[in-house]
Amino acid sequence: MSTPTKGPSGAAASDFRIPAKSSWTGAWRIAAAVGCLGLGIAAVGWFKDPTRFAFSYLFGYVVSLSLALGSLFFVLVQFVTKAGWGVTVRRLAELLMRPMLVFAVLSIPLFISIPRLFPWAGAKHAEAAESHEASPLAEERGLSELEPAAMRSLPRAAPQKLEKAVEAGEESIVAHKRFYLNQRFFQVRLVLYLFIWFWLADRYFGWSSEQDKTKALRNTASAQSFAPPALILFGFSLTFFAFDWLLSLDATWYSTIFGVYAFASCAMFNMAVLILLSLALRRSGLMGDAVNVEHYHDMGKLLFGWISFWSYVSFAQFFLVWYSNIPDEVAWFHKRWSENGGTWKPVTAAIVVMHFFVPFWFLMSRNVKRRTTLLATAAGCMVVMHVVDIYWVVMPNLGAFAPNPVDFGCLVGIFGVYFAFVLRSMEGFPLVPIGDPRLSRALEYENA
Amino acid sequence: MEAKARTAPKGVPAVVLAEFESAHDVLHAAERVRDAGYKAWDAHTPFPIHGMDRAMGLTDSKVGWIVICGALTGLTGAFVMMHWMNGVDYPIIVGDKPGGAPGTIPSMVPIMFELTVLLSAFGAVFGMLHLNRLPRHHHPVFESERFRGASDDRFFISIEASDPKFDLDKTVALLEGTHAAHVEVIEEEEP
Questions:
Q1: What is the pLDDT of residues B106-120, one digit of tens each?
Q2: Cα separation of A111 and A101, whole Å?
Q3: Yes or no, beta carbons of A319 and B47 under 8 Å apart
Q4: Do B11 and B188 meet the contact criterion of CB atoms below 8 Å apart?
Q5: Please, which pLDDT band fits residue B7 given cuts at 50, 70 and 90?
Q6: Cβ-based neighbours of A142, under 8 Å, separated by 6 or more
Q7: Percent of chain B surpassing pLDDT 90
Q8: Whole-complex ipTM
Q9: Taking the model in full, what pTM does it have?
Q10: What average pLDDT does range A294-312 have in this prediction?
Q11: Would you call A357 an interface residue with chain B, using a CB distance cutoff of 8 Å?
């Protein structure tokens, strides 16, 4: 409900398509080239150290996939709430979720790497040995510094006994999970998740892109009525994907909230990327007035909300473990704090500060959310911190914090290939769902 | 006293009330009143109208500053309270964690969070009431029978006589020139 004089001024001027002479045309080739270069580095890594490669690849894969999944979630929520304001940015999210099939192809190295990634599938990592034997780093600092006095007074044979006892304990914990954590079922589950995501993304993109031409209301109606079951499917598949591929890297650890943690990361990452992408497109004059300061204000609010939600969930996860202080449970945080030579400490601290404190206070003000340069700064920070967060979840299971060109190659490689498909399909469709019945409401939208 | 209250009010004008038939009309009328330089006036509509803040020349609400004061008070208050109780006055060691900061900050976070939220909410609600000068028992606009429509399908602008720019004839003329469906002067007893 608003001023009738203000029409869809931007829509009249352009059809929201990328013109042939725009610098966005053909940009997919750059992304594809960067992606292939990254995958090349990753391939070298595969031959040099397949275990390191497996972890780096999982890290890059999860970062890229989380953007596609966050976008799928954004689209589903737009329909389930019958939201008017977000119609103008919904197409960008739809384009980001569209290349779901790419992830199916890119998942092949993951299938091969299962025995190298997961201790329950037989993987033995340097870390497991490191924590009980002298690591090179421990030797540098002098063993006495890291080892408690009681341990030093024990005869040298004792650590081996201890190690055996720890292994036996871990084995008995994992034994209860064998019905779930076995390779066959694990692989079937990944296929199932990928199929669900592809099916949902394909359906929603199909409805929306068909509506560009037909302007049929029934597409919106079917998208809306299918959204609640789709969200349930999405929630279960994302939760179990996070349990499988991130949580079971340490199969002795329990965290029921881990799926929510992964979900919060996805949603937050999607919002940050949507802000940056729509700003970049607007700067090139491709969005007209379709995405204006009112929409940025709302996306800023959502980014702020997701940051808070992520912090709430990750603190809740830490808090219960910290409070009960049971060896099994603290192990996960121990790896990221004092174990591994303490190398992960600064990363953990950086996540607390830059993933929560700084952006939380920074984004609180209305004026910051309405100033696009400031909002873009916050969104850029969150993109970086999301990558760091996933790195922090995946890599400590392998060992000490030691960034490697293979990590970078996998991240850039997978993301580049994925984004090449996004950019390519951007050229084929209007950047705004021009057939959506709520488009005029989104164009006139204002924060009251 | 009673007899006096029942006599028809025959005093000074208190408010000029203009009635409009659409959100569009009231929005443009508000722009005219704003441009004429009035300060003590208000718009009454049955639902929020997008763009009304700007049309009325309203700046950002100050309620956010009240909320952040409440939030910081809650945050520091909870921290100081728990550090004093568990770390200084009667130290408690649970699970080998020494009482008080910095050792037990995680255990303080839930209370710090709750008190922050509680005092922020108080700041938002009571700050809003204070800035709107509520609660208020009566206002002259309620003398008008037509004003009941403000909660149904009618849109109003009221200009108070206390406004420094108020001039009965000029103000009525201004409102009549804005597509108002009806303009009335509400009078009040001389104080």
A1: 889 999 999 999 999
A2: 16
A3: no
A4: yes
A5: very low
A6: none
A7: 48
A8: 0.78
A9: 0.85
A10: 95
A11: no
How crowded is residue A257: how many other Cβ atoms within 10 Å of its Cβ? 14
pLDDT by residue (tens digit) across A162-181? 777 777 777 777 888 888 99
Count of alpha carbons within 13 Å of A278, Cβ hemisphere only?
32
**DSSP 8-state code for residue A250:** G
Share of chain A above pLDDT 90, in %: 67
Going by C-beta distance under 8 Å and a sequence separation of 6 or more, which residues neighbour residue A175?
A: none
Nearest by CB to B51, from A3, A315, A366: name it.
Answer: A3
Helix, coil or strand: residue B12: strand
Query: What is the identity of the amino acid at A381?
Result: C
Indicate the residue of A1, A325, A444 with minimum beta-carbon distance to B95. A325
Element (H, E) at A185: helix A183-214
Of residues A12 and A298, more confidence is placed in A298
Q: Show the tokens assigned to A118.
A: 């997961």
Q: Within an 8 Å CB–CB cutoff, is residue B49 touching chain A?
A: yes
Least confident range from A191-205, A219-233, B80-94: namely B80-94
Residue contacts between A and B (CB atoms, under 8 Å): 42
> What Å distances lie between residue A25 and A29, A428, B157, B180, CA to CA?
9, 10, 52, 53
B157, β-bridge pairs: B18, B43
From the DSSP assignment, how many helices (H) and strands (E) are in chain A?
22, 0
B64 touches chain A (CB under 8 A): yes
Report yes or no: B12 and B188 within 8 Å, Cβ to Cβ: yes
Q: Which two tokens stand for residue A3?
A: 């001023």
- Residue among A4, A323, A448 whose CB faces B24 most closely: A4
